[in-house]
Automatic annotation (TrEMBL):
SUPFAM superfamilies: Nucleotide-diphospho-sugar transferases, Trimeric LpxA-like enzymes. One of its GO terms (molecular function) is ATP binding. Alpha-D-glucose 1-phosphate binds at residues 92, 157, 172-173, 183. This is Glucose-1-phosphate adenylyltransferase. Keywords: ATP-binding, Carbohydrate metabolism, Glycogen biosynthesis, Glycogen metabolism, Nucleotide-binding, Nucleotidyltransferase, Transferase.
Amino acid sequence: MLLAGGQGSRLGGLTRNRAKPAVSFCGKYRIIDFTLSNCTNSNINTVGVLIQYKPFLLNSYIGLGSAWDLDNPFGGVHILPPFLGETEGSWYNGTANAVYQNYEFIDYYDPEYVIILSGDHVYKMDYSLMLKFHKEKNAEITLAAIQVPREEASRFGILTIDSEDRVTKFTEKPANPESDLVSMGVYIFNGPTLKQALITDKADYLSQNDFGKNIIPNQLSTGKRVFAYKFQGYWRDVGTIESYYQANMESLKDGHFLNIFDPKFRIFSNEDIFPPHFVGSAAEIENSLICNGCTVHGKVSNSILGAGVYVGEGVEIKDSIILPYVKLHKGSSVYRTIIGENAEVMGNCSIGARGEFAPAYEGITVIEDYHLITEGTVIESGKHVYRSRAM
């Protein structure tokens, strides 16, 4: 069950028109591509995608799941919106409520194990190895866990474990974390354990119906066998502008753990429909990802250009993420900036901190999807530019 309904308000203008899992990442991908590809690479053939906020674009993008080989006769990918009934509202009350509302779907397949996934994390993981661990431990619930810098730990659920990797305590986003081992938001449940946990949670009118805040702590309190599977690979929660920017920039580094070019563990995308990119004779490109369909006449360094981006003559782009179908016209400069999809920057604009001696601590500038920056506009570093209203 893939939770993909998040609004992602901390990503500001990048999510006013689309759900967070549908935001472009690393040029040609969407954030949700990583979780769907993990399912394919783990030989999972039945996936329920729980959508909610701005569902149309995400629904259209996933389609029948053929890009991820999930259009199969054994289950396939299923888009599951909130249930519109007399006893439920038209909105999920929390992550646990989202799965509860769709338990009819789970019952139809009657699985021995259910894996709960988030559609807004960037990582490559073989879930079959986690399931093997789950079985070896005779666990009822297994949580994927990873160590993060202590200063970031308060953003996540914190795990305390014993020498056998059994979870003894779980605290959701504490102000003062006891450890740096955090939950990745990936859970494996035995089928009956999940069903009973959701029924019990639904009956508790004080519950926030959330896996991290309610389900996991409550299951621990009743003595369930809950274990932590320690993941050793690359994983990023890209829920903030800073983490989103950093994760994109990290993909430009040599030997990066994510390695989107690894043929043994491919990341699939539904964006493989664009013509080759065109690089003009005056173009200069350094340490950058230039996706298909781009036209580049200017200078691009340490940046990512999504599909269909146009870069005019004399344009300079540095340390930036340009999402699909953006147009940048003659003479403009862009530094340490994220420009949303279909935005257009007219000629001779200056966006973000610029120059060889710009301080490293300058903020990240963000331009919302579809925004038009008029000719000669100067936008200071760290500013978030929105249109008057969302689409």
